[in-house]
């Protein structure tokens, strides 16, 4: 598999990061991740724009900002990709610096295991943890909390960790959360990463005439929700039927979630 190593196309086995890198020593870096469908980046323009926004928030500079589309396209051709995922990392290596930091750019294709189809039919589960990410609007490489708590899970149907601040929920460690109450779909408005799939879901809700809002989602609203689902690049739209052992609604994927799963699949099929 061929990747992009800050100006050079190389086999992934040849790409290395210096052990002295700030990205390793301080966990400092930005990244982006998207799906390749039919040999094309699925809403790649939105992902690359979010990547640029992340770099601005994290005060990182790369030398290839105006070449991102070309680099991604070149990697798709070199690796003959029809369906895969693509990762972009901007990693600062120098420990000293003020203001904006120079970052090396790494881009490479990767495979991701598909979620069990049973989870879409019967619903998945979440763990609930009190935690707030630093600068959640940026897609940074800081995933320690979510990874640590996911490693603790013994239930295979637990697919992610849902973060809350004591009175409202924000997002999961790798996705956005939506709740359905009285046929209105609500997703947290603040202190979340603006997921590309999240944005597509909001557009689908409007297109299908479903009531929706971006607003605070209190723990009380979560506990009384009729339906809950997640959105992300890998999960797409995934129904949630249990959170920390508490049943969501009737304990089965609800009609709004099922409608959106079909609508999102149609969007992918038509891409």
Overview of the structural elements:
- This protein has 271 residues and is α+β, with helices and mostly antiparallel strands.
- It has eight helices and 18 strands.
- The strands form three sheets. Strands 9, 10, 11, 12, 13, 14, 15, 16, 17 and 18 form a ten-stranded mixed sheet that branches. A six-stranded antiparallel sheet has the order 2-1-8-6-3-4.
- β17 (236-243) and β18 (246-247) form a beta hairpin.
- The longest helix is centred in the first third of the chain and has 15 residues, at 44-58.
- The radius of gyration is 19 Å and the shape is globular.
- It starts with a strand and ends with a helix.
- 37% of the residues are buried.
Overall 3D form: globular
Provide the structure class: alpha+beta
Summarize the amount of helix as a percent range. 25-40%
Instruction: Give the integer mean of the pLDDT values.
Output: 96
Number of helices: 8
What order do the SSEs take from the amino end to the carboxyl end, as H and E? EEHEEHEHEEEHEHEEEEHEEHEEEH
Q: Compute the number of strand runs.
A: 18
Question: Strand content of the residues, in percent?
Answer: 25-35%
Report Rg: 19 Å
Uncertain ranges: none
Q: What's the main sheet like?
A: 10 strands, mixed
Distance between the termini: 25 Å
């Amino acid at each position: 598999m061929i990747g992009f190593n800050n100006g050079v196309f190389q086999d992934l086995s040849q790409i290395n990061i210096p052990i002295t890198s700030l990205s390793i020593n301080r966990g400092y870096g930005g990244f982006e991740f998207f799906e390749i469908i039919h040999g094309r980046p699925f809403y790649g323009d939105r992902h690359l724009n979010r990547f640029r926004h992340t770099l601005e928030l994290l005060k990182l500079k790369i030398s290839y900002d105006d070449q991102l589309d070309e680099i991604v396209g070149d990697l798709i051709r070199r690796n003959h990709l029809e369906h895969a995922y693509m990762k972009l990392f901007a990693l600062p290596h120098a420990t000293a610096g003020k203001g904006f930091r120079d970052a090396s750019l790494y881009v490479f294709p990767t495979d991701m295991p598909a979620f069990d189809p049973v989870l879409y039919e019967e619903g998945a589960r979440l763990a609930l943890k009190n935690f707030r990410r630093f600068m959640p609007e940026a897609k940074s490489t800081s995933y320690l909390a979510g990874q640590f708590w996911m490693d603790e899970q013994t239930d295979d149907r637990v697919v992610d960790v849902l973060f809350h601040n004591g009175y409202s929920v924000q997002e999961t460690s790798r996705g956005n959360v939506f709740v359905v109450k009285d046929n209105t779909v609500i997703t947290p408005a603040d202190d979340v990463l603006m997921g590309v799939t999240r944005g597509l879901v909001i557009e689908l809700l409007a297109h299908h005439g479903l009531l929706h809002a971006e607003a605070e989602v209190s723990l009380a609203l979560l506990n009384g929700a009729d339906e809950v689902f997640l959105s992300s690049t890998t999960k797409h739209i995934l129904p949630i039927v249990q959170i920390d052992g508490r049943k969501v609604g009737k304990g089965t994927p609800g009609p709004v979630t099922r409608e959106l799963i079909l609508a999102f699949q149609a969007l992918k099929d038509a891409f």
